[in-house]
Amino acid sequence: MIDPARLKTQLAGLATRYNARLEAEMWGSGDLQILPEDLLPSVPDAARPALIRLAKQAQSIGLRIVNTKKAGTLGGVNWGGDNTSLDQALRAQDLDALAAELLEYAYYSGMIAGVVRRDPELGMARIEPLIGHVEPIYNRDSPTVVAGILHAWLDYTDGSTVARWYVRMYDVIDRRMLQWDAVQDSSRVYAQPPTSVVERSAEYPGGAPVPRFAILGRGVDRMPRGVIPKVLPLIKSDWSSQLRGDRAEENTAFSQLVVRGEVSDGTDERSPQHVIRTDEGGDAHYLDPASMQSFHEHHDRKLERLREDANMPGGFLGGGNTPSGEALREANEKFVASNQVDATRLARVLTELVADLAAAESLGQPAEVSVSINWNFMRSQIIQDTITAYRDGLVEIGAAVRTISQFFPVWEDAEVEAFIQEERAATRLPPIIPGQLDSNASPTG
After folding, report:
1. Which of 81, 133, 370, 399 could join 395 via S-S bond, C-beta 3.0 to 4.6 A?
2. Helices and strands (H, E) in the chain, number of each type
3. How many separate domains does the chain show?
């Protein structure tokens, strides 16, 4: 059951956690509505306009993290069964877009959460993602059992310039939903009478709709915490490095003229034929820019740590930062394993939501939803491993063709088989003992 004392304490910190999630969403979406003043270097007033211009050009790497993880996790969303009515309802729901929205919010909040609610305007039930801030309410007697869900967001009402809280509390055990509208102080929500209550009644014989959820990551307080908040310090550090690097390169990326003594002529014009004249004892020369190599190497180390901590693929950073060999393979395997965990939990939540929708609309037998990850990030490795397995006699040619053909959708099976045979012939077996060649190798090597 929900403990009122514990709920009151939880509500006291709701605004802080809401702001932390909102900050993560701004960095993850790349939509920095307010420049982070604490990350800007201290500069003279005259240099501040140029600094602000460069700050507006800097991009949060959180956007690339979110897009890459979504692309890797959402290879396809499908469901089974032969329920025509349910098929039509799910196509109308656009399950692919719903899955993408649920997953992206989970990167900020750490929690996949949705609910089936009846739309009063449309007069039909629909699946809604719980956008805004979502967090579990743990059972009084067990800190691992979720007894309720808090769903909160800020909005402007009645033309007011002050944002007000809207809070829904779902009791998942008693199937009750309490809603508070336009509350000024979120910490005092539970002390006020709710604006509306939905519970078991003639209108709702099954009780209030209950959210379906899965927690992807937790913090030290067992509250959900997404991947973006976890790596946010590194994301901010990368953004700051972009800004400082651009500023340094803009100011020092060209040779600068240094003049000593009085100048009689030559500083108002620049050309290969023009001569700079100074008085006796004077001098004029160009100061070459300092090397930025150490700065860039330090920034690259930040990016590599960010790639590791966020479980991103080996080629995530591009350029010369891509690891090679075994390091690249390990990075891609970690990325795929992380995506598989997220996809499994997302599929479970979608399956439960589809079952709720089928029950709410009397659509018959529900369907199980599957979310397949995008294997293209492991494309080269899978192709090579499959060819090696065929060469070693571990798989038949038909199985090898089926595995590899998914990466070449425009090829016929015969073309895929020919490709496998060519690659197999070009691959040498390792020597059994030092200096011994395999039977496929030529005597000349």
Report:
1. 399
2. 12, 14
3. 3
